[in-house]
Amino acid sequence: MLTLTNAIVLITVLTSFGAWQNAELFDKFKLNSYAVYHKKEFWRLITCTLIHADYIHLAFNMFSFYSIGNYVEKVFVDIFPDLGKLYYLGLYVLGAVFSCFSDIYKYKNNPGYNSIGASGAVSAVIFSFVVIAPMAEINIFFIPMKAVIYGAFFLAIEYYLSKKSMGNVNHGAHFEGALFGIIYTILCKPDLISHFFSQIMG
User: Fold this and answer.
1) Structural domain range at position 51
2) Residue 115: beta bridge partners?
3) Shortest CA distance to 158 belongs to which of 138, 136, 181?
4) Count: domains in the chain
5) Which among 179, 144, 142, 137 has a CA at the least distance from the CA of 158?
6) Which of 41, 47, 73, 75 has fewest C-beta within 10 Å?
7) Do the beta carbons of residue 150 and residue 139 sit within 8 Å?
8) Nearest C-alpha neighbor of 115 from the set 51, 59, 42
9) Do the Cβ atoms of 51 and 19 come closer than 8 Å?
10) Residue 35, domain CATH
11) What is the pLDDT of residues 18-53, one digit of tens each?
């Protein structure tokens, strides 16, 4: 059975490969803050998640998403039998959109600024996982770590790097996607707050 997570991975991989072969498509899909703000090209908020800079960028995002996304998708379906997949899709898509907002605001008058990749959406799914299973053990670069510990370090580091504007990585999108994932998951199922703390205290 093809899960929604697997379908998103497949579509993203195919689109990224296609965009690498078609410069015009790549240009139309990337997040250009100037084009979104001044020309109202709102589709870029979604299409920018479907293309990546290179094989490493694509592989890292999709492997991270695939590793955790199927579990989160299953939890959403278990919690919301009728609307679980729709809510899960909302987590990914709205996480992608939300993570673009600060870039649009900061670079709305800079036609040369562009951003691509699914990092914001993937961060939303990862931090939904942190809310759902904070004491689950995950491997970060082969180092075992509790999900909640990873989440705390991730947010602190990404917030710091976003303020310093270090490197070519869109740290702001990572941070905003993570925050969206936490808030969205709690709004979908407020009982997860007590569940989160009971797991940590237990």
Assistant:
1) 4-201
2) 31
3) 181
4) 1
5) 179
6) 41
7) no
8) 51
9) yes
10) 1.20.1540.10
11) 999 999 999 999 999 999 999 999 999 999 999 998
